[in-house]
Amino acid sequence: MQLAGVRLSTSHDIGGSGTAFGAAYAILPAMIERMRKKQRAAAFFLRLMNEECDPTYSTDPEKIEAFLYAFLAATRTVTSMVEKRYESWYWPWHDGRSPEEQELLDFLIGQRNAGQHRGEDKFEIKVKSVPYVGGIPTVQGMRMPGKSGPPSEIHVARHRYTFEIHGETVDIEQACQRYLQLLDSFVRDFTEVHPAEGQQNV
Length: 202
Known about the structure:
alpha+beta; two-stranded antiparallel ribbon; 6 strands; 58% helix; globular
C-alpha cells in the first residue's frame, strides 16, 4: 500500500512471515505462467486494435474501445499479480523507470480502472480528411474539386484515436505499444530475479 508517498509492505509481500514466504514461493511458477499468458493476450488485443485503427478500415469506435479495455485488463492483471504479492520488488522496479515511463504506466493503469469501475471513456476521437493513396478505398471518400489537387483526387475521413497524457496528445496505438514493451521488460526483469522458477516456465 502507499500512504502520503511512503510505500509500506503488507502480509502479501514476499519479505513477510515465513508462512507468507512459503505460500508465495509455492505459487510462483503458476503465477509466472499466468503472467506470460496475459502478455500474449495483451499482444493479441493490441494487434486487433491496431488493425481497426488502420485508416483504410471503416473504423468503429466501439470496437476500438472493446479492444483497448481488453488490452488494458490483460496488462493490469500482469502488474497487479506482482504488486499484490511482491510489493517490495514491484515499487522499486516502478520507481526505477524514467519519468515518462512512470507517467505512461500510471496513466494506463488509471485508464483501466476508470473503464473497469466507472465506465468512463478517456480517449478522444479526431477526424480529419486526408488524401487516399493506392488501391480502391475501403472507407467512404469524396471527390474534391478543390484548388490544391486534381478534381478526381479522393479524400477519406481518417479517425485518429488519442490519449491526453499530461498535456501531450498521443495516439492510443503508440501509447499501448510502448506500454506493451514496458510490460515485456517487467516480466523479464521479474523472472530474472527468480531464475529457477522462470526457466521451468519458458
